[in-house]
Structures are given as structure tokens and as C-alpha cells.
Automatic annotation (TrEMBL):
Residues 512-532 are annotated as: Disordered. It comes from Pygocentrus nattereri (Red-bellied piranha). The active site is at K116, S191, S215. This is Amidase domain-containing protein. Belongs to the amidase family.
């Protein structure tokens, strides 16, 4: 499917326009030309440098007191969490069945967990960054959170997200802006950016995120941690605001975020409840028996930025490593339909559900049921008195011009992409695909590159499981990474691949450790192009 001359011209014009906007933005953006980027101090507690499942073992063996562990951190539910930690230590003291019984019954006993604020966590705010919801306090737990609690985890509190979970940057007028621990001038991603930042910085062990367009994977990528968007329908999505409508329930996924790949599978098993059985998570995976495919970019959509050369290089290194270590051949494939990822995502997100009802508009969600007028909000925003962010107002404005009838061409692209990927991946295929075309951008920069999330969003529409895997740091000291995609219900394949890549590339890096920036393993190639 070659590009027409018109598409090429349009692409050139769009990219030129974005470059001009970005150049103007750079002129006014803070930290221009500063060599030493503001970052966090190194992590001092060794307890923050082990996977959650190791920590759980140390707590069960009484090597670490759950109470002591919580003293290392200060969070929103601090007093309640301390009480729960004391109960955990008492329970361990009184347990006569031994460590195995505890592990079986309460696999996360005493492990601290944080939760994206869009989820209900009893007694905690659930505003989803909307000023009008600032007094909403959850009376019950979302099912995924309840399952983690039932497994013994201790929630520390809730973390920031973008307004109504619909932006690449976690910024709202209630909590403010979330920063990236590797460079405080960069975004932490969205919408689960608070989780990405707190886990990446080492201040939380594991967390709960949600993803309808990349909201687990984008923050995991920007903050150098692991995350998993499960096969659609596996983890219960209830108890989140906003509730998905139309066809969106099929695209929204709840999943784990963590620093160590080892934690992904146990977290997923707990969060999925009985549905975990569908994933055969205990089945052994031998990577040498898998078929790997590498897709270096989306084929050159004019709406999206070209993939950063350092990300292309990182993906090549993964291919070389897999081939050398496993004795396999990774096949490079081009999938032309991916070029329409944004159009496919947009069309499906606004399609009516099986009941024929259209999804709730973003403008209605912003107004809490009563539609806001985006142009009026924009005017108020210019005067500095709108309760909404520029991004949310922009989304509501764009929505006004969106057709409710998706074009037949786009629907055909979606169908053929679904067929092609299902055939390609089968039950033993893993696809390597960039997580995002850019490294963590500066604050507010996504306003000029809003479509870049389509690299992740397309897999929500296809319902495929995707693991986000960190791959070390760039020359600027920002996280590199990759998406690992498998066929439906084959979640164990990208999870096993992430475990291997963690060993091969070092996984999460302490953002406060300056040595990483100097040591970064991946060289920058001179040029790259997305043209097919
Ligand atoms: C201020 C300019 C706004 C322009 C809007 C252009 C349209 C872009 C459309 C959608 C952006 C959605 C980003 C979604 C990010 C992740 C969502 C998620 N919860 O998984």
C-alpha cells in the first residue's frame, strides 16, 4: 500500500508545521541548552531495589517487618497503611502453617502498592483530575484493587493522572503536573503518569494502571519500568472513572506496573482473578520455540513523529541479541495498515456499542454529565479561569468535528490489520514494535504531537496483550523501551520475553544514579527515516 503523492505532500506539510511549532515551543521552554538535567537523588533503601515478590518473601520470613518497610515512605494513606502493616506483622507472628501457607493464601502479604487515582480505593479521592470531582471519596474498592488487597497488599495511596485519563501527560488543575524522575523537565506520560513516576523513582514497589490508548505503556516507557496491558476482558475494569461507553469497554484494560519483570505475572494473576485461567500463565515458555517479528515503525503516518533513531537502534540491538542468544531468526515485517492507527483508534473509540448507543462525549464527561462548551472553555482558559487543561479543551474541540460514522476505508483497514496480525502471531508469535516515536518529551510538548500515542492505542482496538519493556537509557539519560505484542490470550509470551530482555539489557535503572547516563549502552545512529 504505497503512499500517494497527495499523502506524501500532506505529510511533508504537516511535519513542517509541527517543526515550526516545536521550534517556537523550544524557544520558550525552560532548561534550553542546560547540560545538567534536574533529577532525583539515588535510592538509599535496599528494600526499594527488590521485586515485590522477593519483598513479600522477606516479610513472610520476618526478615523485614512490614511496619518497618512502610516507615521508608510517606503517602496519602500513611496512618491506615501503618496500622495494616502492624496487622500483617502480627498475622505472620501468629501463623502456624508456615511460609508456604502464607504464600499460597496471601502472595503479596505486606507489600505496598499504589493505585492510579482514577480507580476507586476505599477512603481515597477519585476525581480523575476533574476539579468538579474534588470531593468524591470512594466508598468501596475497584475489583482489581480489592483482589490485590485480598492477596495481602497494602495500598499506600492514589497517584496522579491526566484529566479524565485522556492525555499523554499527567497534568490537571487539581493536583498539578507529574514529573519524570529521569529529568524533572520531562513528562511522566499519561494517563497513569503518577504511577509511572512514583514506581520509576523507586518510591512505590508496584502499582495499578489502566490503558485505553497506552496509559499503562506510555508512562512505563517514559519512566523506564515494566507494564502489562492484558488481553482485553481479562482484568475487571469496573470501579474506574470515567466508565467506558459505546465499544470502549472492549478497549480499556487494567494492568500492573512495576520495576521488575518478575512482578508482572504474579500481579496479573491476582488482578485477573478466576479469568487468569484463560491465560495458562503457568505453562512453560521456551523462547527458542517462539517466532519473533520486528516492525520498526508505523509505515510513515504524516500525523505522527518519525521514530527517534535511538529507539530504532535499541530495537535493532534487541533483534541482534535474540538472534545471537536463542539461535533464531527475527523476521522484519512491514504492516502498512499501521499507518492508519490513529484513524482506526479514533473511529472505534467513537463507535456506538452493541446496544446502538453512542459513547458519552468527552465534553459531557468534562461537565460531569452536562456538556461543556469547548470554545467558551478555551476563552476562559486564555483568561486563566477554566477548570480544565488545554489538552482536555482541545480534545473536546476536536471531538466536535469528528464524524460519528467511521469511513468504510478505515473499517476495512482495521479488519485487515486484525486478520493479518492474528495470522502472523498465532499462538507462538511475539511482535517487537516501538512504544512511542519519541523519548519522554518536555512538559506540554505533546500538545504539538498529540497523535503519537497511536503506537500504543492501536493494540487496544485489536485487544492484544502487550508488555512494555525498558531497554536502558538514551544519551540524554532518558529511558528507552519497546512494546512486545502477542496474540489474544497469549500474555505469557511477552511476559517471558520481558524477563529475558530484563536480564539482557539491565531492566529498570535508578534515576538518581548518575553513572547510568555516562554508561548508556546504546549509541545514536546518524539518521533514520520512516518512509516505506
Ligand atoms: C491541545 C490539542 C489537542 C488536539 C487533540 C488531537 C486529537 C488527539 C486524540 C486523542 C489523544 C488521546 C491521547 C490518549 C492517551 C492515552 C489514553 C489512555 N487512557 O490510555
Amino acid at each position: 500500500m504505497a503512499m500517494t503523492r497527495f499523502e506524501r505532500l500532506l505529510g511533508l506539510l504537516l511535519r513542517a508545521a509541527v517543526r515550526v511549532f516545536l521550534a517556537v515551543f523550544e524557544l520558550f521552554a525552560p532548561q534550553r541548552g542546560s547540560a545538567e538535567q534536574p533529577r532525583l537523588p539515588p535510592i538509599s533503601s535496599p528494600l526499594l531495589r527488590v521485586p515485590a515478590i522477593h519483598l513479600a518473601r522477606q516479610i513472610r520470613r520476618k526478615e523485614v517487618s512490614s511496619l518497618f518497610f512502610l516507615c521508608c515512605s510517606l503517602y496519602l494513606r500513611f496512618a491506615a497503611a501503618l496500622q495494616e502493616a502492624a496487622q500483617v506483622d502480627k498475622l505472620i507472628e501468629e501463623e502456624t502453617g508456615g511460609e508456604d501457607v502464607l504464600e499460597d493464601r496471601l502472595p503479596l502479604l505486606g507489600v505496598p502498592v499504589t493505585v492510579k487515582e482514577a480507580f476507586a480505593l476505599q477512603g481515597m479521592p477519585n476525581s480523575t483530575g476533574l476539579l468538579s470531582r474534588r470531593t468524591v471519596i470512594s466508598g468501596v474498592d475497584a475489583p482489581s484493587v480489592a483482589l490485590l488487597k485480598r492477596a495481602g497488599a497494602i495500598p499506600l495511596g492514589v497517584t496522579n493522572c491526566s484529566e479524565l485519563c485522556m492525555w499523554l501527560e499527567s497534568h490537571n488543575h487539581l493536583y498539578g503536573i507529574t514529573r519524570n524522575p529521569y529529568n524533572l523537565g520531562r513528562i511522566a506520560g499519561g494517563s497513569s503518569g503518577g504511577e509511572g513516576s512514583i514506581i520509576g523513582s523507586g518510591a512505590s514497589v508496584v502499582g495499578v494502571g489502566s490503558d485505553i490508548g497506552g496509559s499503562i505503556r506510555i508512562p512505563c516507557f517514559f519512566n523506564g519500568i515494566f507494564g502489562h496491558k492484558p488481553t482485553s476482558g481479562i482484568v475487571n475494569n469496573a470501579g474506574q472513572h470515567p466508565p467506558p461507553s459505546g465499544q470502549q469497554p472492549g478497549f480499556l484494560c487494567t494492568g500492573p506496573m512495576c520495576r521488575y519483570a518478575e512482578d508482572l505475572m504474579p500481579m496479573l494473576r491476582i488482578m485477573a482473578g478466576p479469568a487468569a485461567e484463560k491465560l495458562s500463565l503457568s505453562a512453560e515458555v521456551d523462547l527458542r520455540n517462539l517466532r519473533f517479528f520486528s516492525v520498526p515503525h508505523d509505515g510513515g503516518s504524516p500525523l505522527l513523529s518519525p521514530v527517534d533513531p535511538q529507539l530504532i537502534q535499541a530495537q535493532k540491538k534487541v533483534v541482534e541479541r535474540l538472534e545471537a542468544d536463542l539461535g533464531i531468526k527475527v523476521k522484519e515485517v512491514r504492516i502498512p495498515q499501521l499507518k492508519y492507527s490513529f484513524q482506526i483508534w479514533g473511529a472505534m473509540m467513537s463507535s456506538p456499542g452493541k446496544d446502538g448507543k453512542s459513547p458519552t462525549t468527552f465534553a459531557e464527561l468534562m461537565g460531569g454529565g452536562k456538556r461543556v462548551w469547548p470554545a467558551w472553555e478555551l476563552f476562559k482558559c486564555m483568561l486563566g479561569v477554566s477548570p480544565h487543561t488545554v489538552a482536555a479543551i482541545g480534545l473536546a474541540l476536536v471531538e466536535m468535528f469528528q464524524s460519528s460514522q467511521p469511513s468504510q476505508f478505515i473499517l476495512q483497514q482495521k479488519e485487515s490489520l486484525q486478520r493479518e496480525l492474528e495470522e502472523l502471531l498465532g499462538t507462538d508469535g511475539v511482535l517487537l514494535y516501538p512504544s512511542h516515536p519519541q523519548l519522554a518529551p518536555k512538559h506540554h510538548q505533546p500538545i504539538f504531537t498529540p497523535f503519537n500515542f497511536s503506537y500504543t492505542g492501536i493494540f487496544n482496538i485489536l485487544g492484544l496483550p502487550v508488555t512494555q519493556c525498558p531497554l536502558g537509557l538514551s544519551v540524554e539519560g532518558l529511558p528507552l523501551g519497546l512494546q512486545l505484542v502477542a496474540g489474544k490470550l497469549q500474555d505469557r509470551l511477552p511476559l517471558a520475553t520481558a524477563l529475558y530482555l530484563e536480564k539482557a539489557f539491565g531492566g529498570w535503572r535508578d534515576p538518581g544514579d548518575r553513572a547510568h547516563t555516562a554508561e548508556n549502552t546504546l549509541n545514536t545512529p546518524k539518521s533514520s527515516s520512516n518512509a516505506t
